[in-house]
Amino acid sequence: MSVGLIGRKLGMTQVFDEQGRALGVSVIQAGPCHVTQVRTEATDGYSAVQLGFNPGPERKLTRAERGHLGRMPLYRVLREFRTQDANDLSVGDELTVANVDLGQRVDVIGVSKGKGFAGVMKRHGFRGGKRTHGQSDRERAPGSIGAGTSPSRVFKGTRMAGRMGGGRMTARNLSVARVDIERGLVLVVGAVPGPRDTVVTIRPVRRSGQGTD
Asked: Strands across the sheet with 48-53, in order?
């Protein structure tokens, strides 16, 4: 796989490798994806491919989205992948799990589970306050968050309670353990972000200098 795929997380299970070791794997139903746009250095200043994927029932698209897709199916999900192989693809080409190599290293991108408002112990791993010496309500408190006289303010980025989860996360450098071409499944070793049925993006591991998320 040189470009990437869009898929849907089905859950986790375990498989056994050639040495008989049990591996925890995430099962992803990936593709089929179709090329909806090709960007090149000459026209856009960089090389990339946009893929379309339908994880479920079609949704109503805006006029701008319909105009962008033209006569192609109304894809619910569009993702762009930086690649140097954009010139080898054209609009309408199909990409499936057959393009994924066994043992290939990939990054899986998704939105993590939302945990709601969480305290500092759950959110940041604080140990909490002492459980003795007369304290009555400091067991799960963060403690001091800054001096009063100098600097007389709380620094930006101070770890405190707040909304936890529900953000874009990347599970990096995961190994492909199995590829089921008939059912369109990719099994990667380890956990990937998000609950069941969340949309995830699979891409080859990026080397230094190939851009950022």
From this structure: 77-82, 48-53, 33-39, 94-95
The DSSP code for 167 is S
- Dist. CA 123–CA 127, nearest whole Å: 11
CA distances (Å), origin 125, targets 128, 130, 141: 9, 15, 12
Alpha-carbon distances of 43 from 1, 40, 54, 77, 160, rounded to whole Å:
25, 6, 28, 24, 46
- 127 secondary structure, DSSP code: -
Residue 207 burial (CB < 10 Å; 0-12/13-18/19+)? exposed
Average pLDDT by stretches of 10, the chain with 213 residues: 87 91 93 87 88 79 83 85 82 88 92 95 94 89 88 92 94 92 93 93 74 48
